Amino acid sequence: MSITQSTDTAGTKQDLVRRRDRNGTMAATSVLYAVLIALAIVYIFPFLVQVATSFKSETEAAQSPVSLVPQVWTTAAYRGLFAHSDFPVWFKNSAIVTVCVTLGRVFFDSLAGYALARLHFRGRGVIYAGLIAVMSVPGVVLLIPKFLVLNQVGIYDSYTGMIVPLLTDAAGVFIMKNFFESVPISVEEQARIDGAGTFRVFWSIVLPMSRPALMTIIILSFQGSWNELSHFIVSTQSPALTTLTKGVASLASGQLGGPTQYPLKLAAAALMTVPVAVMFFIFQRRIMNTTEGAVKG
Amino acid sequence: MSANAVRSRSGIHGHETASGWLFTGPVLFLLGLFLVIPVLMALWVSFSDWGGRGSPFSAGVHFIGFDNYSKLLAGGGLAEQDFGTSLRNNAWYVVLVVPLQTALSLFLAVLVNRAVLRGRGFFRTAFYFPSVTSSVAITVLWLFLFSSTGSVNKLLSYIGITGPNWFNEPSGILHDLLGVFGVQNGPAFLTGGTFLGISWWDWLAGPSVAMSAYIIMGIFTTSGTFMLLFIAALQNLDRDVTEAAMVDGANGWQRFWQVTLPQLRPTLFTVLTLGLIGCWQVFDQIYTGTQGAPDKTTLTPAYLSYQAAFQDQGWGQGAAIAFILFVIIVFFTLFQRWVLRERKVSRRKMRPYLSVGTGSSGVPAGAAAAGQPPAPDGERQ
Question: If both were cysteines, with which of A231, A284, B321, B365 could B305 make a disulfide (CB 3.0 to 4.6 Å apart)?
Fold first, then answer.
C-alpha cells in the first residue's frame, strides 16, 4: 500500500527539487569537477614523480625534481639495485612469506570462522569474546613481546619465526564468520544427514561456496604481509632473511653522508609497490568493497 | 549460546564440541602463543630488571616493582625527558592528523558520491591508491619529495617561497609562527613549569617542521581508506529523510550538517577511533625515515619503545613504554566513545513530530534542526 504512495510523492518532490536547482547545476557541476581533478592530481602526482625520478640520473633528480619526463633516460638505478644490493633476496623473502601467510590465513581463518558461525559447542561464546579482546590490542605494543616469545621458543631469525606468528588474524576469522552466517544452511544439513563428517562438509561443500569471502581474505593478507615491517624487524637479523620492507627501509636510512641516491631508493620503492599495485588493479572493485565488509564485521 | 540450547540440539549437533575446538584450535593456539603469552611476558619484563641476556625468567632477573614506570613518569632524568618529548610529538601528530584526515575523507566521499559525477571509479581509485602501498615505500617517496632540493620546495619556489629543509628542521611550527611576530621566548609561567621533563612552552611548540611532513603523509595515505567507509555509509543513507529536508527548503549546506552528518555518526565513530588508534602507533615511517631526528622531534612512543629495548638493551623500560601507550590508546578510545554516544532527544523538542507519525525510523532531531518550521508534512497528506 505504501509503494504507490511513495512513488507518487517522489515524483512531485523531484520536480520541486529540479526546478530549484536547474540554474545552479551547471556551475556547481563545473566546480565539482575542478575540485575533484585538482585533488586527483595531488594524489597521483607523487607517484608519477617517483617513477620518473627513478629513470633520472642523480644530478638531474636534484635539479629538476618535478619534471615527469627525464631529459636523459637511464636505468642505472635499477641496474644498481640488482647488481649492488640484496634486492633480489629481499624480493624472494617477501614472496615466500606472503604466499605462506596468505595460504595459512585462508585455511585457518575459514576453519575457525566456520566453527564460530555453524557449530554449536560449549565455549564458543568465550572464544568469540576472546577474539574480540585480541583484536583490540594495538600492534605496536607487541614488538617487544613477540621478540621475547620467538627467542624463548627458539625460532628467532628463521622463516618459521617470520611466517608462523602471522598465520592467523582475528579480523579474518570475523570476516569468514560473517560470511558463513549469511549463506543458507540447508545444503550443509542435507550433506550431513547423508552422513558426511563435519570436516568433509566444510572442505568439499562449504569452502567451494565461499569464494567471495576467501578472495577478501587473500587480498587482505597479501597486502598485509607484503607491506608488513615491524614483525620482520623483531623476528630476524640475518641479511639472508631480510624482506623488502626491511631492506628498502635500510636503504632509505643507510647511506647518510654519502650521495643521496634518490633514483635508486625511489626505484626500489617503486618496484616493491608493483605486486600490490597489480593486485589492486586486478581486484579493484572487490578491494573497494572489502574495507567496507571488514569494518562492518 | 546458552547451555540449554546446546543440550536441546544435541541430536544433530552431538559431536560438534570436539570439531568446534578442533576447528578453532589452530587460531587459538597461534593467537595464544604469539599474542596472549607475549603480552604477559612483556608485562613481567616491564616490572623486572632483565637486560636482554638469557631468559627473562632465569634466576638472575629480579622483580623491581614500578621502577621502570616511575623512571619514565617521574624520574627527572633523560628517560623521562625522552618519553615526554615522544608524547609531545605524537600528541601533535594525533591532534592534527585525526581531524584533518576525517574531514578530508568525508569531503572526498561526499564529492565522489555526487549523483551527477562521471568517472567516479577513476577518482575513487586515485584517492585510494596511496592506502594500498606500504608505509616504507611511501616514506622513501616522502623523503625525496620533502628533501631540500625536492619537488615540494621546487613547487614552493615557483610562488616565491623558500622551503625549509623539511626532515632536518627541528623547530616547532607554532613557535615559528610566533617568531614571525617577534616572540622568541615564552612567558615565564610557561617556561618555568615542566611536565614529564618538558617545559610547558616546549609542549606548545607544535609539531616540528620534520613532523609536519609526516603529518601530511599520514593524511595522504589514510584518507583514501576512510573515504571508502564514508562512501559505503552515504550509500546506505535513508533517502527519504534527505528528500524531506529538500522539500522543506533546506539548502545543500544545511542538509549536510543537519541531516546527513547525524546519520553518519556510527561511521564517524569508526573512522575517528581507527584514526586515533593508528595515529598513536606511528612506527614504520619513523623507522624508515628520520629515526627520531632532528633533535628528537620525530621520536614517537612506539619508536622510543623499540629503541629503548632493541638498541639500548633497556628491555624493562621499552616494555613499560609500550604498556603506557596501550593505556593511552584504550583511554582515548573509551573517551571518544563517550563523547560520541547517542544522546536522547528531549521530549519537548520531539513533540511537533510525534503527532505527524511519519513512522520512518530516521532522525527527527536532524529534520527538526533543518531550519524550517515543521511544515505540514507534504508527504503524508
Answer: B321
Helix (H, G, I), strand (E, B) or coil at B222: helix
Q: Report d(CA A188, CA B69) in Å as an integer.
A: 54
Query: Residue B51 falls within a domain, yes or no?
Result: no
| Domain harbouring B114, CATH code | 1.10.3720.10
B313 three-class SS: coil
User: Which of B12, B31, B231 has the most A C-beta neighbours within 10 Å, making it the best mutation to test the interface with A?
Assistant: B31
Q: Does the distance separating the beta carbons of A249 and B287 come in below 8 Å? A: yes
Longest dimension (CA), chain B: 83
B149: nearest CA in chain A? Answer: A62
Out of B38, B124, B288, name the one closest to residue A253 (CB).
B288
Residue B187 belongs to some domain of the structure: yes
Q: Which residues of A touch B324 (CB under 8 A)?
A: none
Of all helices (H) and strands (E), which one includes residue B195? strand B194-195
Q: Report the residue of A121, A160, A283 to disrupt the B interface, i.e. the one with the largest count of B CBs within 10 Å.
A: A121
A41-55, A276-290, B230-244: the lowest-pLDDT one = A276-290
pLDDT tens digits, one per residue of A37-73: 999 999 999 999 999 999 998 888 888 888 888 888 9
Domains identified in chain B, total number: 1
> pLDDT digits over B101-121, tens only?
999 999 999 998 886 777 888
Shortest distance, CA A76 to any CA of chain B (angstroms) = 18
Q: Which domains does chain A have, with CATH numbers?
A: 2-76 (no CATH), 86-296 (1.10.3720.10)
Instruction: Tell me whether residue B376 is in a domain.
Output: no
What's the pTM? Answer: 0.84
The torsion angles phi and psi of B48, rounded to 5 degrees, stand at -125, 175
